[in-house]
Amino acid sequence: MNALNPRPGPLPNTLQLTDERQLRHLLDVEGLGRPLLEQILDNAESFAGLNDQGVKKVPLLRGKTVANLFFEPSTRTRTTFELAAKRLSADVMSLTMSASSTTKGETLLDTLRNLEAMQCDMFIVRHAEAGAAHFIARHVAPNIAVINAGDGRHAHPTQALLDVFTIRRHKGELSRLRIAIVGDVLHSRVARSEIHALNTLAAGEVRVIGPRTLLPAGVERLGVQVYHDMDEGLRDVDVVIMLRLQRERMQGAFIPSEHEYFQRYGLTEARLALAAPDAIVMHPGPANRGVEITSEVADGPQSVILRQVTYGLSIRMAVMSMVMGVNPKVPA
Amino acid sequence: MNALNPRPGPLPNTLQLTDERQLRHLLDVEGLGRPLLEQILDNAESFAGLNDQGVKKVPLLRGKTVANLFFEPSTRTRTTFELAAKRLSADVMSLTMSASSTTKGETLLDTLRNLEAMQCDMFIVRHAEAGAAHFIARHVAPNIAVINAGDGRHAHPTQALLDVFTIRRHKGELSRLRIAIVGDVLHSRVARSEIHALNTLAAGEVRVIGPRTLLPAGVERLGVQVYHDMDEGLRDVDVVIMLRLQRERMQGAFIPSEHEYFQRYGLTEARLALAAPDAIVMHPGPANRGVEITSEVADGPQSVILRQVTYGLSIRMAVMSMVMGVNPKVPA
Amino acid sequence: MNALNPRPGPLPNTLQLTDERQLRHLLDVEGLGRPLLEQILDNAESFAGLNDQGVKKVPLLRGKTVANLFFEPSTRTRTTFELAAKRLSADVMSLTMSASSTTKGETLLDTLRNLEAMQCDMFIVRHAEAGAAHFIARHVAPNIAVINAGDGRHAHPTQALLDVFTIRRHKGELSRLRIAIVGDVLHSRVARSEIHALNTLAAGEVRVIGPRTLLPAGVERLGVQVYHDMDEGLRDVDVVIMLRLQRERMQGAFIPSEHEYFQRYGLTEARLALAAPDAIVMHPGPANRGVEITSEVADGPQSVILRQVTYGLSIRMAVMSMVMGVNPKVPA
Questions:
Q1: DSSP code string of C33-73
Q2: I want to staple C88 with a disulfide (CB 3.0 to 4.6 A). Which of C61, C99, C125, C141 is the partner?
Q3: pLDDT class for B105, splitting at 50, 70, 90?
Q4: Inter-residue contact A91 to A146 (CB < 8 Å)
Q5: What is the DSSP letter of C167?
Q6: What is the pLDDT of residue B298?
Q7: Which residue has the higher pLDDT, B110 or B160?
Q8: Beta-carbon separation of C119 and A80 below 8 A
């Protein structure tokens, strides 16, 4: 199975954009052109300023109802979407979806129809199956927006966007940067979205680093440099994006042992010294400390891991406003 | 046991009305006179308009605290009450009540006293035992309102009201209508409330259709026409209200098999053709497709099943405002 | 083990006060001077007035985010903090914390760092281990306030404060009062906080009553009179504070049997007659009826047990405002 091409149905840009090429759903960063990506990042910038103020709330989505549909548990992602919705003054409903609901079954469609009838305005969807958010977006009423909060190993666009936002905020102009994505690219729904976003924004050079077993076949066709030796791959990069080793997703023997994985691909202070002196270190969290990254690096001066969490709120506020057609300008 | 007369204690109209004959609690549609029923429907009408607008929120219950006391799980009903409360700007607390609390035990009274002391303003009560909401209404402090969200097989007044609202909205003047209620009347807490509401509002003709085992003894004394043959019963009706086959409530053999039930009482397109050409089809949801109704009919042009969900919010907003003594007039 | 001295680390007053001696965290009533205690009580008084009004909500904490971190389940305490936060217009997140998180482990610190990055403003902490809230307060970012909602058998300051508030409201000037604390002082996190608060506010006389096995060694050094005979201890007191028999906390045989405990220390109407005729009876709830108190007394005319619940909201609103540096004056 090729993790890079599981997309079912029509091209997402026919689905996630309005006729005026505004954001209608956020399903995937693929198909979002450079102007739209930059608009999302700029809008997130204005929310980032807001979040540093005492009153972190704006009335942009007052009277709107956001339904969290998490078919796969994720306290962390659910919490940040919930917080983002509350800071936009929306009402939030969190529904625990039974595992038996499927993307094709009548049950899911029935549930969607009922939530539509309750006049929800937005569905935040997390599902173990690739294409679930696309399926839902294809079937919802015209006034409802869908945001993909992770579908299988397919995509996780808000995480990819917050990563790009972090890079732009801390390192500036992307075209001048060398960026390395390290680790379990095969099972990562973030890495794929990220490579597309970085390509669209014309990042200088994107590298992927990992063992052959954890890199998808044909990954170089996405326009990235492939490294199997970490020391080589890290040399002179400006940004190191570590991926979480998806232990729960691995069936069979992708890696010989966690110990050996750490020996070859764990990010230590010694290895980080091979990158540019002011390189930043990123991780989507939660980190497997001692497996893909040491605590010294994760908590060290070059780490921006916790800033990513903060920026995640800004990106989610930006995207949620935009799919509601609301001008996200906030008071300065 | 007779499902039609399980009511313990005093007549509900001495309990659910104020001295000025305004709504104080909503426990049962029995005892609500025609003017009050019509006032509820009219108020719901103004909320229905609101719900079509972009901002679905009014400040009518700002600063009020609504406690959801669900002794019996029901995501769907709980969610609609929660949404209705939020759209009225109330604060909502959802309490999972332990199954061991009983309507008579000290534990329940202790819990009520504590919630009163926390200055809750309204209790939404769902309980497996008939009379639970009445029991609570008899024991709460004078400033607290109780809404029955379903007590055993006894009553479910907001569902009955939203059904009547649906009929009035789609078919107009009730006195000119023939209305059939089909299926498991015996185990339905909705059917009973519904028959009373339709009688009070002087509906033209009310029929119940079902096998002898699923109709309560003496049901004809409620002023309804009884049919055991569905084709006969459906002839020329303007409204078909299908009931959910309460499989989880049936102890013993009320029906030979679901297959045979469908053969005799399932609503198909062929059977629906016996009704008036512009008849509407209703169902409280979730439907057992292929048991009491086919998907063609449930999703077909005559179905108003999803409109019922929407109207349910309007009815709940109307009732919650009224028991708080708040004028539910909303901006046009 | 001595329950009276489990405090780890520096004195709490260096931790819970700002340089201007304002409340920064609320961890323990120890170390709070008389002016600050009286300020808390006065502020709670203004919220108590608010709570009697129709609109029980003020915008004092609008735009603030409160995170409930309950490592130990407590529906009741969590609910009152949640309600207090909502009535201050804050946004509330309730996080169920896994039992495996420890006060010293990396996991807890990681969680804290992530919640900080989500720009939470306040942590309400309940934990089975003494010192947990202090540990968290020592490690949070400078802009975050911590409120101890109970840590092991160590402290439960908002409960102690609401008890003192209750006494002051119902019996007036503390210096003229005789106050008895009865029962399981050893396992009570409330009793310890309470004795300190009463001493600081110069209460006339504080007595503790209980069997030797349920009183901490050296309790008399806290400035209280010790009684093992309940009839003696209750004589002429103005306030009787009953403690809950912490059956779930007792390992081994602290009492011969519940029956015998009731015989010697249960509060009956006959025993209460030994106190001053207008004495009030308090209990933190939920009461073990028939073990430490009879229903006649708990529900009787001298009981102020349910008033304590109401005052608990006012105290929590006062403390939450103060640690946010917000002037808690509310419109009269």
A1: -HHHHHHHHHHHHHHHHHHTSS-----TTTT-EEEEEESS-
A2: C61
A3: very low
A4: no
A5: H
A6: 95
A7: B160
A8: no
Chains A, B: CB contacts under 8 A, how many? 46
At C245, the pLDDT band (50, 70, 90 cuts) reads confident
How far apart CA A67 and CA A236 sit, in angstroms, is 44
Q: How would you label A277-293 residue by residue, b for 16+ Cβ within 10 Å and e otherwise? A: eebbbbbbbebbbebbb
The percent of residues above 70 in pLDDT, for chain A, comes to 87
Contacts of B110 in chain C (CB under 8 A): 286
Which residue from B75, B86, B285 is facing A91, i.e. has the nearest CB?
B86
Which residue is listed with tokens 């009535």? C87
**Which residues of B fall within a CB distance of 8 Å from A100?**
none
Q: Does C106 touch chain A (CB under 8 A)?
A: yes
**What separation in angstroms does the CA of B69 have from each of A315, B63, B125, C96?**
37, 19, 5, 21
Distance between CA atoms of C38 and A220, rounded to whole angstroms?
69
ipTM of the complex model: 0.86
Q: What pLDDT does B102 receive?
A: 41
Tell me whether residues C106 and A75 touch, CB distance under 8 A: no
Task: Provide the token pair at B85.
Answer: 């409360």
Are A119 and B51 within 8 A, CB to CB? yes
- The Cα B181–Cα B202 span in angstroms is 16
pTM for the full model?
0.89
Domains along chain C with CATH numbers: 12-155+310-323 (3.40.50.1370), 157-304 (3.40.50.1370)
Count of CA atoms in the C-beta half-sphere (13 A) of A98: 7
* Tens-digit pLDDT profile for residues C150-190: 888 778 899 999 999 999 999 999 999 999 999 999 888 88
Least CA distance to C91: which residue of chain A? A86
